[in-house]
Specification:
A hairpin with a 3-residue loop joins strand 1 and strand 2 (13-20). The protein contains 18 helices and 24 strands. The chain has two domains: 3-241, Nucleotidyltransferase, domain 5, CATH 3.30.420; 300-391 and 473-501, ATPase, nucleotide binding domain (Nucleotidyltransferase, domain 5). The protein is of the alpha+beta class. The relative contact order is 0.14. It has a seven-stranded mixed beta sheet with strand order 18-19-17-16-22-23-24, sandwiched between helices.
């Protein structure tokens, strides 16, 4: 029996999985990742930590009973995108990554707006101007860290960097390329007009590869780091949100997947690309299909920030109850009614879709002395879900109907969060069981790439639909009213957010 290894370079953790070719998950390992935000709207991580995590995870997996490194037939890597890692001539990162949810390059984004009409950019790339684009971040690096930028030979994504460490292949998976803003969606190739927009040399960008293409084999050095067998084939890999949605079974028009990860992803399966400046567009895992989608800059990261900074007093209670701190807060907040008069805008890293506003800020509205952490936690859960609902509104405005809704990834383990989602969306929400995350998609893509698996629909053997959360009429009515207020709050404050960033000495040092 052939085995397959998938690695997920996520925002909050690195995860590895071993599956067989018959539908079984044999083992999963994870390690935490440190998130750095040294200044307002900065989001960075250390690629060296990712690689160290990969080594620990792979060695732990290979030590599991029944897992033989010689039986691993293929390796695939997935990750958040489009993160930006600058590599020097020796292939080493020159600095920490700039994450996809980083919003520092506001002036450079304005350069884009002046240099090319957004409608033309949208026509070429399938997406509008946003903080997620790679070009403005490279421009920022060139202006603010010129010596580092001068030494850069290649810019790659998170999963691409780990793929490079595994097999020595410098490449970027096609969805990193598409979301970078350098690719003509009609041709799938870098467009000189788009590269020139950022004022960079074309050779800074690595070749584009499709997800299931075999790009190399595991090197001796990587084998020593991971405990895997040198010579094991490695595929190009895939985007984490796309892999997660594919694993959920979203392959028909109208299948919607909400990914409750460190960032909040929402993807709608479609047989045609949709160009709207408020959304992103990605290739589906299955060739020929598309995923119009959105990504909220902070979802699980937002909740983790609350835990780290406001929930210290709950840790002992969580330990005593045998719960995680998140579970403990869920249990306490479950008693707070949907009509609670507190609203939280989760724009703590600016916001990507559908606002495309890097200067937006997290905002707590309605706080009173009658509130406590329970109310704040529920308001945060609701705020993220309201962000998802905003996307559903946009999909509808684009003529795309939502039929089935699936919930996946770490946050989907929260019954409270999924019930809020069902109530706020007014639709049944199905939790996907046996879904360890995007790493499963990466392993399956590796199987397709090396020929161990031959049918894309075989992914259904590895997962199963779980509990269905149904809208509760009273809660739905309360959240409908709150959602309207939540939308209005941003509209009223939008013009004030930039002034906060302009306060002298206002940024963190």
């Amino acid at each position: 029996m052939a085995l397959l290894l998938g690695l997920d370079i996520g925002t909050t953790s690195t995860i590895g999985i071993v599956i067989d070719d018959a539908g079984a998950t044999l083992a999963v390992e994870s390690r935490p990742v440190t998130f750095h935000s040294d200044h307002a709207n900065w989001a960075e991580e250390d690629p060296a930590q990712w690689w160290a995590n990969v080594g620990e995870i792979c060695r732990a997996l290979m030590a599991k009973p029944g897992i033989d490194p010689a039986a691993i037939a293929g390796i695939g890597v997935t990750g958040m995108l489009p993160a930006v890692i600058l590599l020097g001539g020796d292939g080493r990162p020159l600095r920490r990554s700039i994450q996809q949810n980083d919003a520092r390059a506001t002036a450079e984004l304005q350069h884009y707006r002046r240099a090319m009409d957004e409608a033309e950019f949208l026509r070429l790339t399938g997406t509008g101007y946003s903080q997620q684009l790679v070009g403005p971040k490279l421009m920022w690096l060139r202006a603010q860290e010129p010596e580092t930028f001068r030494r850069a030979c290649h810019a790659v994504g998170a999963s691409d960097y780990i793929t490079y460490k595994l097999c020595g292949a410098l490449q970027v998976e096609h969805n990193w390329a598409l979301e970078s803003g350098f690719v003509d969606i009609a041709t799938g190739a870098y467009d000189p007009r788009l590269v020139a927009l950022a004022g960079i040399e074309a050779d800074l960008l690595a070749p584009i590869r499709k997800s299931h293409e075999v790009v190399g084999v595991l090197t001796a050095a990587a084998a020593a780091q991971t405990g895997l067998r040198a010579g094991t084939p490695v595929v190009a890999g895939c985007a984490d949100h796309v892999a997660s949605a594919f694993v959920c079974g979203a392959a028909k028009n109208g299948d919607l997947v909400i990914k409750f990860g460190g960032a909040g992803d929402i993807l709608l399966s479609s047989d045609k690309p949709v160009a709207d400046r408020r959304l992103f567009i990605d290739h589906h895992i299955v060739p020929g299909l598309y995923f119009p989608n959105g990504c909220m800059a902070a979802s699980g990261t937002f909740l983790n920030w609350i835990v780290a900074n406001w929930a210290g007093g709950e840790r002992e209670a969580a330990r005593a109850a045998g719960l995680s701190i998140h579970q403990c807060l869920d249990r306490k907040a479950a008693g707070v009614p949907p009509s609670s008069d507190l609203l939280f805008l989760p724009y703590v890293l600016g916001e990507k879709t559908p606002l495309m506003d890097p200067q937006a800020r997290g905002t707590l509205v309605g706080l009173g002395l009658h509130h406590d952490l329970r109310h704040v936690w529920r308001a945060a859960l609701e705020g993220v879900v309201f962000g998802f609902r905003h996307h559903v509104d946009v999909f509808g405005e684009c003529g795309l109907a939502v039929q089935r809704v699936f919930a996946a990834d770490g946050g989907a383990a929260s019954d409270l969060w999924l019930q809020i989602a069902a109530d706020a969306l007014g639709r049944d929400v199905t939790r996907v069981d046996r879904h360890p995350g995007s790493c499963l998609g990466a392993a399956f893509v590796a199987g397709m790439g090396v020929g161990v698996v031959t049918d894309w629909s075989a992914i259904a053997r590895y997962v199963a639909p779980g509990r269905v959360f149904r809208p509760q009429p009273a809660a739905q009515a309360a959240l409908d009213a709150k959602y309207a207020l939540w939308r209005d709050i941003y509209n009223r404050l939008q013009s004030l957010y930039p002034a906060l960033g302009a306060i002298p000495g206002g940024s963190l040092i």
